[in-house]
Amino acid sequence: MQSKPIDTARLGVMRCVIEPEARLTQDGEPRRDREGVPQWITGLSVRQLESRRADVIHVVTSGRPSGITEGAAVTVTDLWASEWAVDGRSGTSWRAASLTPDTSGPAASPASAPRGKSSGGE
């Protein structure tokens, strides 16, 4: 399995589409990293700046990301992608050092987006 660092600056705004959930084993027990910290998985939408195509990636972190809610813009720190193949199946696993709410500007809050015409009599 080869891991590659990902330049998140090329991905544009990343938004949470599935709030953080505990990552579980097949037996229902919490998965843990090498240090014994429980792992969490969060679904993020990503869109490369030069593309209209959007994808959802499921990013694993050690420890529960706090303040991440559905629809919120997210800052991803130290994102890595790992390609895998098992029994004829293959895919990409995503891991990050941390996920935090992005408070850098208007794109960070869905509530700040224009909603259409006002009821001001126009």
| CATH class category name | Mainly Beta
How far from one another are the termini?
59 Å
Helix content: under 10%
| Computed structural class | mainly beta
CATH architecture: Beta Barrel
What's the number of extended β-strand segments?
Answer: 8
Over all CA atoms, what is the radius of gyration? 17 Å
Low-confidence stretches: 108-122
User: Judging from the principal axes of the Cα atoms, what is the shape?
Assistant: globular
Structure annotation, total helices: 0
- CATH superfamily, please? Nucleic acid-binding proteins
Q: What about the largest sheet?
A: 8 strands, mixed
Biggest sheet strand order reads 1-6-7-4-3-2-5-8
Strand-and-helix sequence, N→C?
EEEEEEEE
Enter the CATH topology name.
OB fold (Dihydrolipoamide Acetyltransferase, E2P)
How large is the share of residues in beta strands?
35-45%
